[in-house]
């Protein structure tokens, strides 16, 4: 596509945590193999621009605030580079992606409603975990569950699972079950480290 359009510049939203976790600095190892920080060809036919490469996420947001960008833009949730597929356990299908998208939308709506969106990330993960459930007088078996992950972080290098979301987990669970058809919702209480933020 770049060659067809005769592109002269290639811009990436690389931030410093991407650089560190891609294992290309002197003191870091490869934590996130999906980053394209170290995966570009040595020789390219266009100029590479990474204006935020040496800034952490909170510094990028400070800069955006200084530039008077809309709050909705500045506080927009982080989206994984590989897309929602990284939050799907097993085979990736359109149906699973839609379930992840919808559950993530529900989580973020609740976070915004209760003003928990500043320096927070919240999303759903699809896992293949059969569980039984009851609807009316009927028993059923569901082939998947949704993991809710809500973390607090400023720089994305470290993160703690959110305890502030606890009062609203029932609301999130009820909506996810009703709106996606899942039979089970669980909450991830793992910090980074030892966990990564996303599921890979």
Write the layout of secondary structure elements.
Layout: E1 9-11, H1 16-21, E2 47-49, H2 57-66, H3 71-74, H4 94-113, E3 120-127, E4 131-135, E5 138-142, E6 145-152, E7 160-161, H5 169-180, E8 185-187
Parallel strand pairs: 1-2, 6-8
Antiparallel strand pairs: 3-6, 4-5, 6-7
Helix pairs in contact: 4-5
Helix- and strand-based class? alpha/beta
Major beta-sheet overview: 4 strands, mixed
Distance between the termini: 28 Å
CATH architecture of the largest domain: 2-Layer Sandwich
Number of strands: 8
Backbone CA Rg:
19 Å
Task: Please write the CATH class name of the largest domain.
Answer: Alpha Beta
Characterize the structure shown.
- The longest helix is centred in the middle third of the chain and has 20 residues, at 94-113.
- The chain folds into two domains: 1-55, no CATH class; 79-200, GMP Synthetase, Chain A, domain 3 (2-Layer Sandwich), CATH 3.30.300.
- α4 packs antiparallel against α5.
- It has helices at residues 16-21, 57-66, 71-74, 94-113, 169-180; strands spanning 9-11, 47-49, 120-127, 131-135, 138-142, 145-152, 160-161, 185-187.
- It is built from five helices and eight strands.
- The two termini are 28 Å apart.
- The mean pLDDT is 83.
- Strands 3, 6, 7 and 8 form a four-stranded mixed sheet that branches. The chain has a two-stranded parallel ribbon with strand order 1-2.
């Amino acid at each position: 596509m770049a060659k067809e359009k005769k592109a002269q510049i290639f811009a990436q939203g690389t931030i410093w945590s991407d650089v560190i976790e891609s294992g290309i600095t002197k003191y870091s190892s490869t934590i996130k193999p999906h980053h394209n920080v170290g995966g570009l060809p040595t020789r390219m036919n266009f100029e590479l621009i990474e204006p935020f490469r040496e800034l952490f996420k909170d510094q990028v947001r400070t800069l955006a605030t200084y530039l008077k960008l809309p709050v909705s833009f500045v506080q927009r949730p982080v989206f994984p580079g590989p897309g929602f597929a990284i939050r799907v356990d097993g085979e990736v299908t359109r149906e699973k992606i839609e379930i992840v998208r919808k559950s993530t939308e529900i989580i973020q709506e609740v976070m915004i409603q209760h003003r928990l969106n500043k320096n927070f990330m919240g999303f759903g993960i699809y896992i293949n975990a059969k569980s039984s459930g009851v609807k009316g007088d009927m028993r059923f078996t569901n082939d998947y569950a949704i993991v809710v992950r809500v973390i607090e972080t400023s720089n994305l290098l470290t993160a703690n699972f959110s305890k502030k979301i606890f009062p609203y987990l029932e609301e999130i669970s009820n909506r996810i079950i009703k709106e996606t058809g899942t039979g089970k919702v669980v909450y991830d209480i793992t910090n980074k480290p030892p966990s990564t933020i996303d599921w890979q």
